[in-house]
## 1
Amino acid sequence: MFTRKASLYFVLAALFLILGLLFQDWQLASMVLPIASLFFLSNIWGLPEKVELAISHQIVPSDSFGDEDICVNIRVSNRNSDPLGNVEIDEHLPSEIKVESGASRVLTQLGPRDNIELALTFHSPIRGHYRVGPLVARVQDPLGFYLAENIVEPEILSIMPKPERIRGAELRPRHLGPWPGTIPARTLGPGTEFYSLRDYVSGDDPKRINWKSSARHGRLIVNEMEAERVTDVMIVLDTDVSYYETAEAELFERGVRAAASMASFLLRQGNRVGMILQGEKRGVVSPAFGKRHERNILFLLAGAKPGRASLSTSYVITLLTRLMLPAKAQIVIISPLLDATILGGVRELAGAGYSILVLSPSPNAPAIFESEIEEIAYRMLMLERSNTLLALEKICTVAQWSAGVPLSTVLAGVRRQRLVIRV
Amino acid sequence: MLVVRLHYLVLVPWIVLAIPSQVLLGLGILLVLVIMSVGLYGMLTKKQMSVTLASVALLLVLLAGKVGSDLARAPAPDTAVLLVQFVSVIFFMEASRVVLSFDRESSELGGRTDEGARAVIERSEKWVRGQLVGQARLSIGALGLSLVLLVLGGFTSVSINQLAFSAILVLIVVGALLFLITQRREPETRSVMLP
């Protein structure tokens, strides 16, 4: 196709012609000749009539935990037998990416049936989804009158949050799945925890004989174990984190890291795990098993961004968990609890029989306050948060997570709520 | 590339000072200084806008000088010289674009010496040489073709004072230009604008 520049030169030629005729000056009119000649020669010599370029790009790896270098391999082939003198290859990269090796824009020549392979490498950017591309290859004649363009759609590079290796909290939901897992099922079955004693019957494993008890009763007694099963867990990450600008990102990232670690840990135990992102940008992954599902959850978390929720958190979590989770299953809510309206939703879910663990990353106090009003506002916010925490502790398990404390330490301290029989 | 970077030093005085001074109202020297400064500033600071501005200004001065000479009934310059000046302006304008693209490419690499960057620089150096040679070849070819056509046109004695003939001539030339532009080519579709 011809370019805008060719159109401008055409206008210039027309201008010369008109002026030449207007002033009856053949010298002016003759200036059309070089422009016409340039068009003619560019058309004949400048660029082949058919340009067949094959272009591709590949991101290696296309998803990462942010601890490795990312490479984009670009391949451009000239499938024609004509050489291409002016080829521009442009890979558009997001501004967050700084190229360490190679270049995102290359000007080159391509011989007949020639191909070039380019590689550009950059350090993994921070967590998020990045559009790498579009990859554009432009072929032009030397004067830029004619243009052939090939485009390859962008690819997505996902930098996912890296799950920490954690030890689990003591979760005891009343809903359990049929498969063996790690959650005590309050029933007899294969497991690791002692449950009760019974008389030995023929065929019992001799290893299970409780010799002390047998000696005491004068007959063979065997230990019985508590069955351990899997459960369904929905992790809710509250992304509505509006706090001091400097501390907000840290608080939010701590929440994302906790969600990734919890999801990974619970999936490794064999549970069905789902994820809800609630904030300005919402996202849902239905509960499922397995490694691939873990990737799906981490992919969702990679795109999480903090922002003010347009829909009430209470409304969203009650609606979605009831839709996607069986009754009396486990819910893990990760929220800094800066918005007290979440309390209503938790109360409703607890009333419906769900087991709820609230993991609350504690906000760091700002180093200095810019004004007295700001300090008062901060204190009021913290007071309100304390009230929410107190109210939540009455209806579910709550764990506060201060910055600098390992998540495992916080979760190890979580004990299930004991049912209190009031007389 | 040095010749392209410094071409304003020669091209601007040659074109502007060739125009009769009464046409430029005695501002020839000032024009030379202004266009030369803008062009050189663009080339040295790698600002495409300044370079294009200076080249377009030079083109307009060339056109205005010719029209002014007609109006002032000043002696007409030699046609061949006029054509050479015109083609030179176009060539150097396009060559500057190429050199500045190369400069931009180099500066984006920011003095990196890794293998990938070295390969890109080598490719760019080959590309810039190929582009300048290609443009020079096209410009010289166009100039030669124009002069040949001019000489051939000189053998035929036609008057452009005849209105009907002039109109037909305009139509033929515009038609020929359109044919030259669009022959073997598809019309332009919107080029990809990178975000």
## 2
Amino acid sequence: MILLQLMKVLIVEDETELAHSMLNYLQNQDYTCELAYDVEEAKEKLTLSDFECVILDIMLPFGSGFDLLKLLKESGNESRIIVISAKNSTDDKTRSLNIGADDYLAKPFHLAELSARVQSTIIKQGLVGSDSINYKKLSISLPLKRVNVAGIEIEITKTEFSLLLFLLLNKGKVVSKNAIAENLSSQSALYFDNFDIIHSHIKSLKKKLGIAGDYIKNVYNTGYNLS
Amino acid sequence: MRLLTYNTKKYLWLTSLLIVLSIPAFYFAVNSILLKATDSALKSQATLIPKYISEIKNPADLELWRKLDNNVEVALFDKNRFKKEPFTIHVINPETKDFQTYRYLQKETEIFGIKHTITFKVPLLEKKELLKSILIVQISLLLLIWVGFIIINSVSKNVWAPFNQIVDFLKSYELAKDKELTEEELEIDEFNDLKFAIKNLTERTKTSYQLQKEFTENAAHELQTPIAIIKSKLDLMLQDKSLSKNQSTLIDQIFYVLQKLSDLNKNLLFLTKLENQQFIFEDHVDGVATVSNVIENLNFFAEGKYQQLLFPRPEPVFFEGNQALVDQLVQNLMINAIQYSPKGSIINILLTHESLTFVNEGSKLDFNEERLFSRFSKTIEKDQKGNGLGLAICKKIALVHGFDISYRYQNSKHHFSVSFKQKNEA
């Protein structure tokens, strides 16, 4: 079981409403979150305490997110950094990853996606001491991409694995079909009616999971909830 | 017809006509001048009559005068044959059979108390001769004018050179490309005015184009933040435990249109960036890897429709380009194929050294193929699943890479093909 309560996340975002949304969602995921609205405030908070993860916007007042990112990397700060940017340009993505960001997420994004990214970044870095996620009778191994239900390995497709992982990383939350579609297509633009498709994948996944399939619930046809 | 030729032709016609008309005019004018001169010469001779008469003492003197001066005739006065004014007479030369023209002036004088008529005569220039001289002069003048026009014409071609330069500039003018007219002053004022007017116009057009591009990009960019906020607020709202089914459905519907809005915005931003040429084409693109990657990302869509994405025996293809753009191109074509083919069908992706082709089943298009690649094509929108920009983006991406994108319908299947062959090599 991952102890998220111990994980501290700093959100650096100048858009108040968006910052509050992120804070609200992540706090409900039991992270300890703090907000910074500009580079100076972020620097101050980063010197006061250690954060496992920093969510960093690029366009900020009093300096760009890139500068802060560089500063953190140069000073040997070990926080995982997820860059979020409205510029949606591949140059920004390449640049962030080159400087040393762990992940990049283009705005607008679903909070479920952000949460999943934060969590998998933390897990990947071995900060929680385990690279598998366990929930009730369900256990999935991230590097091996294997799923066990009550100790028995289940054969599932790549799509179904991604779907299950996404739901698990957002357990207890209602995840919209839209967010699922975005996650499955790696955030590439989708121009169509994807709801039937998501539903048929869920159906098949639930069937394969057997008793653990009951953890996944359809919420008024709007989204899904694993609990 | 060139303006120069046109003008020259008109001038030549006019000068030729004037010269032809001037021939009779000259003739009459010269003729009358000659007559006047002759007449005044005759008259001045006539004033000498009293002097001559005073010298004549006897009939023998008179006879001598007659004999010596061929141009004077002395006869007895005959009232019927006397003319007061000078007159012209044509005489046939008995030896040469030629007409000879004379001008006569008669005076009435008394010699030895008897009335006599003294007639002075002067041979006149032949009309034919006169006409001939005038013709020679005028025709050589005409020839000289023609030669002159030809010379001026060839010189004028150089004068028109700056004009032709301006025309060439306008023909090859592209808004997005940086090309400008030279600053130098031209010799001809009109061309100079034209040049500066065009320079002014292109500069103004360029500025407004620039502003428009920036505006589109900024507008699309500014829209991202509110969309992101709405999206996040809806995500939070969905977590509300007391949410009713009705409210939940409403959120779902909002998500749906928000997604459309967001995609549209992303695509507009993307197209603007493409047009602003903000991409660098220095990536070493691996064709097989790119397609495989997109298949992996979009496979869940095909699976959901029980479709199969087949990518059999691809040939290794590498080219210089922009990886992100090529990804987008392949992705859009793939989504297009998945979206418009029936459940349970097979989508074939063929990659060769020459081209990348997507083949999928589907009914024939009920609109013009040319509109397929245009933005927001209305006919496509009726059965809209996308936002009408996907294929327009594909076309633009192909274009900036120097590729050609084409569509054909064959054996009840849609074929979308990107040909790698550089256009300039073909």
